[in-house]
Design a protein that fits this description.
By secondary structure, the protein is an alpha+beta fold. Helix content is 36%, strand content 19%. The chain has five helices and four strands; from the N terminus they run αααβαββαβ. The mean pLDDT is 92.
């Protein structure tokens, strides 16, 4: 399968939309929403998993309810460019649980991170003593999220 496979038909898309809305649907419930028999629906779902269209299953947690009251977006610039600092940075972020996402970006910064922390003091400690402690990190700029107006609920499956 290519990065974007147009071989997904309307039934595949119904299955994907339903699974993004509620991945805990039983196969019978999913088959009803997809307008398929349970066995056909199960085969389609397994195919979507095998193709990697469905990347995995997880629960969306409310950060505030588990004590993570601060979300921030952090732009990171590396001091030296090239393969070694970029590789070292990519490896380093994998082991840091506060970093929820890390994207290589174009523009002024090299990376954009989505970070969470219990409070501002914890976030400051993370920035000063963990992220900026890496010798290849030249600068960071952060923006604290004041309010989440829309939470991620899934990809738009047309």
């Amino acid at each position: 399968m290519t990065e974007h496979d147009s071989s997904l038909d309307a039934i595949d898309r119904r299955i994907l939309r339903a699974m993004q809305d509620n991945a805990r649907l039983s196969n019978v419930e999913l088959s009803e929403q997809a307008h398929l028999s349970p066995s056909q629906c199960h085969r389609r779902l397994k195919r979507l998993e095998e193709l990697g269209v469905i990347d995995g299953y997880s629960a969306r947690l409310n950060p505030e309810k588990i004590g993570l009251g601060v979300t921030a977006f952090v732009s990171v610039s590396l001091g030296k460019h090239g393969e070694s600092p970029a590789t070292r940075f990519a490896e380093a972020v994998q082991g840091i649980p506060e970093i929820l996402e890390c994207h290589s970006v174009s523009g002024e910064a090299d990376y954009l991170l989505r970070v969470t922390a219990p409070d501002l003091k914890s976030f400051s400690d993370f920035l000063m003593h963990r992220l900026m402690a890496f010798p290849f990190v030249e600068s960071v700029k952060s923006s604290i999220a004041l309010e989440c107006l829309k939470r991620w609920k899934g990809l738009p499956v047309s």
